[in-house]
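quick one if you have a minute, typing this from the bus. below you get a single protein, a line of residues and a line of whole numbers that encode the local backbone shape. could you go over both lines and see whether the tokens make sense for that sequence. anything you notice is useful, everything is just below.
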Amino acid sequence: MTIFLIITIIIVLYLSYKLLYTYKEGMNASLVYQDESKYQKIKLYEKGSKYWLTLNDQVQFNSDEHKLSHYLQCDVPLLKFKPKKVLILGGGDGLAASHVLKHDFVEEVTMVEIDEKMIKMLKESKLMRKITNNVIDNPKLNIIIQNGFDYVYKTKNKYDIIIEDIEDDHTNQKKVVHSGNYLKRLLEISNIVSQTIGDDIEDYEKKFPIFTKNYLKHKEIYNKPKFELYTGDKEDLFDELEYEDDFLMELEKNDVLQDVKFYICGNYYNNMFGFEMYLLSVKN
């Protein structure tokens, strides 16, 4: 059996597992909202006190994990730095915006979302309005329908913090390349960038030893995930995140690294969402 065939079988089994999970959950739940755009099929399910959103039949968020996930991505950096002007890239489900706008010190939020059908869902779905505390009606929220990646390279605006919440794994939109040039551009727009870096269900201890060490340490001490300043080799950090080979080269060429501190956090949620990593980049 060739390596290619083995890899193909593993990928098929993994996708089948995720589809089976979605199918079994959907069978016993009410489909309370659905729509379709050129990017994705949008379905919102509810079962008792549980709810979840799928994009192209892949779970986007679930009531069991989204509060903690967005607390780490949004609330932690906001409480630390208290920004007034916030840019959210992606985040069409409104969850990031609802977390950001809980804080009175935030004066304005720009959310750049590629899919207008996601915004339509926020307006029309009673469940989404409840989950997001009617964030769609908040006068502090300005929504721009555009690919967040394109917006980053074209905008002349500056922000106090960027929350990157682009989800391109399960959609038909242009992929966001996590390159050194991309992070450099983000740090030109803002001195603070908060990112959620993927997830993995199996073997995360082997794949992500740096983030796993963070997760296990704080789980033992505090029984909850926490950010910490990363003081190790930056090449090891970005290799673990599977960023492009030119990532550090681009940052070093533009003298970005000497002025930036990286804070990391890892957390294991459950068998569906697996292990998720958070990266907070702060420029002095």
